[in-house]
Amino acid sequence: MGALTVRLPTLSSLLTPPSLSRSSPFFLRHHRTTFKFTTVTAATSSAPPKAQEQAVTPRSHDFNAWYLDVISRAELADYGPVRGTMVIRPYGYAIWESIQEYLNVKFKETGHSNMYFPQFIPYSFIEKEASHVEGFSPELAVVTIGGGKELEEKLVVRPTSETIVNHMFTQWIHSHRDLPLMINQWANVTRWEMRTKPFVRTLEFLWQEGHTAHATPEEAEKEALQMIDVYTKFAYEEAAIPVIPGRKSKVETFAGADKTYTIEAMMGDRKALQAGTSHNLGQNFSRAFATQFTDENGQRQHVWQTSWAISTRFVGGIIMTHGDDAGLMFPPRVAPIQVVIVPIWKKEEEKSGVLSAAATVFDVLKSAGIKVKLDDSEQRTPGWKFNFWEMKGVPIRIEIGPRDVSKNSVVISRRDIPGKEGKVFGISMEPTILVSYVKDKLDEIQASLLNMAISFRDSNIVDVTSYDELKEAISLGKWARGPWSASDKDELKVKEETGATIRCFPFEQPHGTKTCFMTGNPADEVAIFAKSY
Amino acid sequence: MGALTVRLPTLSSLLTPPSLSRSSPFFLRHHRTTFKFTTVTAATSSAPPKAQEQAVTPRSHDFNAWYLDVISRAELADYGPVRGTMVIRPYGYAIWESIQEYLNVKFKETGHSNMYFPQFIPYSFIEKEASHVEGFSPELAVVTIGGGKELEEKLVVRPTSETIVNHMFTQWIHSHRDLPLMINQWANVTRWEMRTKPFVRTLEFLWQEGHTAHATPEEAEKEALQMIDVYTKFAYEEAAIPVIPGRKSKVETFAGADKTYTIEAMMGDRKALQAGTSHNLGQNFSRAFATQFTDENGQRQHVWQTSWAISTRFVGGIIMTHGDDAGLMFPPRVAPIQVVIVPIWKKEEEKSGVLSAAATVFDVLKSAGIKVKLDDSEQRTPGWKFNFWEMKGVPIRIEIGPRDVSKNSVVISRRDIPGKEGKVFGISMEPTILVSYVKDKLDEIQASLLNMAISFRDSNIVDVTSYDELKEAISLGKWARGPWSASDKDELKVKEETGATIRCFPFEQPHGTKTCFMTGNPADEVAIFAKSY
Asked: What's the half-sphere exposure (Cβ side, CA atoms, 13 Å) at A144?
């Protein structure tokens, strides 16, 4: 067993509120590198440690390298054999399952039913809606051979399902009594992206896509807004990501939509991530596919529609919002493992008592519905395990050593407050006390991650009143917020000159009269500009 | 409101145990066609009723037409725009969700983790395992264009994932400590089938595929058997399908497996449906993909593997196992709706009292976790609704009329016992009593459907001692069971001459010495022969 840090009673850590500044964790880290990474995988001891088995690149040094490192070493995902594809490993897939569980309940509560559409779409369907084909045709994967024969009509592997959904809706919708029709599907989609990045942009990804049809434009608008609200709540409450909900500019609107609502998230490198979208499709697809109903006056009308989606990209958003130099930091509500138990003993005669206590604590927490892992492997030192599970972003670590067993207590460390300040000794093993303590701490960590992310976001948005100020903000890697009523051409000019795009016109607008920072004309709204993924 | 049947107190129905014979429901049906189908969809009343809005073809007249009718009219599924594809509608998808919920828990309990592999597989992968490419190459959908360009290597849309799984396993497995590796994925798969049928055989379908790697052949065999056991229990306990588990003949074994275990189900037309399979893959894929580990003695070894799957085909199996001339009959544990409430009133002054009581009953059952639907639409008569929900296979119907309201009671009808015999009056609305009564009845219906299916199965399997007896049994549409140790060639001859194949060598074997009915040689086992889907 490796050397252990001497534990000092830290009553102060119990009394001091968790620090929410981002600098302190990095500072504290400096003082506690007691343990070193050895090998991470369970390779035979004779094998030399491989590059991938070392510690991750520090987040503060190279954000992109850190991102790829944590994905690989925490075994969240791996590259597939086909360029741009990704294998989502159990630890990463569990996050997607958390997302699914939460949203699936919300979708049903708001009146949607799950179903499944085929992924092969006749090429002619894509061509029916003019802006849709323009937006998607460069990204299509096309099946041309089936059952050993050249197909008469090429098939598109769905990049999104509006076209096939409308083809079916046209058959199912006859009267106003068939409306609203509100469905959702969990599915894979394919977009032939050239620049890919695990979770954020892959050739194939998983998502849910909601599709609804309504009798009036007001209902469709209400639905589109309701669903972006569901996404916003999910981001804040579950993923601890303080997204900014708003409306896309015309330039950035979905190919085939009248309006696109979005939630925009600031990643740890201050780039924006479009984390979910909800589209008011108007009658664009219903006109292209003749999706009509007979209204109460016997008149034929085209339906008003919405579609909305969140994808495995959101997992990338969770990874890139939280974390520090040591690795991942998962919000408890989406964490695949919420608590890891590390039993510690030096002498052989201590072993059985420690392991037995650890197993009891495991059972207690598991019965309480907590996602708990007992790491009782003997190949690794406790120090190695501390670093490993820290890198994996597990919110709470419980240590149990011989002294703890004798005192019937455990030591609990918080991932969000590294070092001694996050460590509390002498928490009773008594089930009621322990479970209640752990649940409270998980709630505190959830809140603390959200607060840290809010502070980070707010300290990196600059209010601008001129194009020069915008350029400066963007060049510093920040987001710029300013009144905007300029043209699409001006918007593209900003993109060309600064690399930033309008992420959204946020729902939350400052009061008072506004003057467009680009043209000097009156403006109704401020827009947020940023570089993005 | 349409005319209602006069309700007679039927104490006898309370005392008579439910009939388990298959003939009685058909007999009873003859006496109770009080209500006629009018229009099923909510089309405007001026629209003429369409063909699809009429009653279903009686199951006893034309099983295949009945199957297609119930799928269409109960809105389980619809045809996709591409030949052989299927849209799974909410009522059908809910059954798949029941299957997923149950199996997902069982898979995790038995140590498997969910993950996700890309669906695009390089064509060269498929060619690596000789019998695998032979089995699957005629059925492949191939992507040849991506992002507007001809691809250098053609991509197969996964027909199953053994090849890509092994490609990744080879990167993840190093030491015996990495074993067993046990994963599962919920995914869509594509097989270019020429003869398709909704749910049973479609170009694209949904499934789960488990993949495991082990250090020893014994562990792999144990795993393959464990998973066919999970499927068997699911079929019996949830789907009320008395499948016969067993081993496939060599001819019928999966392309790439050493052994295939199967669960074979007898459909209502007495054709066999292969409802789930579990394969012991031996080292076939690990040798083709060099998936090796270092054992405890430092020796490199190829892993031993399994794979196992259940698909949306199982939904077809549930539909075709249960049901009668009037339509579907879902086992309560997989039924999308377990209880439908039909409020009944004639006079306008009765309406509010009846609707209010119906809403209360709805809330009571819903709070108790029962899947309940309140059909309070005013476009349809109660009689129309009775027929409609009967056709949809809802296990229990609750009627509430003015007299019931005054007596604070409801009328309950069982789908599995049509007519008066399945109808009970005067069940108290008092929540505790009602919930307990409904739950008991759901359990009884679950058991009754299984018992009916067991009786049907057992009365349609013939023990044969000669090829002539087999031919006769098959020509009567039955299954034949007899001792078999003949050659693959003989097996193919049976298929050619009778249309029947070996469905399996059942695990449950009769005692005593056996003589092959084909060759007269000693035989170790009996095999089951049947025509199949």
From this structure: 12
B158 backbone dihedrals φ, ψ, rounded to 5°: -50, 130
Whole-number Å distance between alpha carbons of B174 and B152: 32
State residue B53's pLDDT score: 54
% of chain B residues with pLDDT over 90: 86
pLDDT tens for each residue of A191-224? 999 999 999 999 999 999 999 999 999 999 999 9
* Rounded Cα gap, residues A436 and A218, in angstroms: 46
DSSP letter, residue B132: H
Start-to-end CA span in chain B (Å): 44
Please give the full DSSP string across B68-93, using - where no structure is assigned: HHHHHHTTSEEE-SSTT-EEE-HHHH
Is the CB of residue B437 less than 8 Å from the CB of residue B429? no
AA letter at B280: N
Minimal CA separation from A192 to chain B, in Å? 5
pLDDT for position A133: 83
d(CA B165, CA B182): 11
pLDDT digits (tens, 9 = 90+) for A262-281: 999 999 999 999 999 999 99
Alpha-carbon distances, residue A16 vs A12, A29, A106, A451 (angstroms): 6, 18, 37, 16
Nearest chain A residue to B191 by CA distance is A147
What are the chain A neighbours of B192 within 8 Å (beta carbons)? 146-148
The neighbour count for residue B173, using CB atoms within 10 Å, is: 24
Contact A218, A480 (CB under 8 A): no
Chain B contacts of A128, Cβ < 8 Å? none
DSSP assignment letter at B224 = H
3-state per-residue secondary structure call for B259-309: EEEEEEEECCCCCEEEEEEEEEEECHHHHHCCCEEECCCCCEEECEEEEEE
Residues 6+ apart with CB under 8 A from A361: A341, A398, A400, A410, A429, A434
pLDDT in tens, B334-381: 999 999 999 999 999 999 999 999 999 999 999 999 999 999 999 899
Tell me which chain B residues have a C-beta less than 8 angstroms from the C-beta of A164. 80-81
Q: What is the model's pTM?
A: 0.90
CB-neighbour burial class of residue A101 (10 A; exposed 0-12, middle 13-18, buried 19+):
exposed
Whole-angstrom distance between the N-terminal and C-terminal Cα of chain A?
44
Model confidence band, residue B412 (pLDDT cutoffs 50, 70, 90):
very high
Q: What percent of chain A has pLDDT over 90?
A: 86
pLDDT bin (cut points 50, 70, 90) of residue B169 is very high
Q: Nearest by CB to A142, from B122, B140, B143: name it.
A: B143
Tell me the backbone φ, ψ of residue B280, rounded to 5 degrees. Answer: -90, 105
Q: Which of A483, A477, A414, A479 is nearest to A449 (CA)?
A: A414
Instruction: Please say whether the dihedral angle defined by the alpha carbons of residues A12, A13, A17 and A21, taken in this order, is positive or negative.
Output: positive
User: pLDDT confidence of B132, banded at 50, 70, 90?
Assistant: confident
Å between A228 CA and nearest CA of chain B: 23
Beta bridge partners of A277: A262, A309
- pLDDT grade, residue A14 (50/70/90)? very low
Burial A263-294 (b: 16+ CB within 10 A, else e): bbbbbbebbbbbbbbbbbbbbbbbebbebbbb
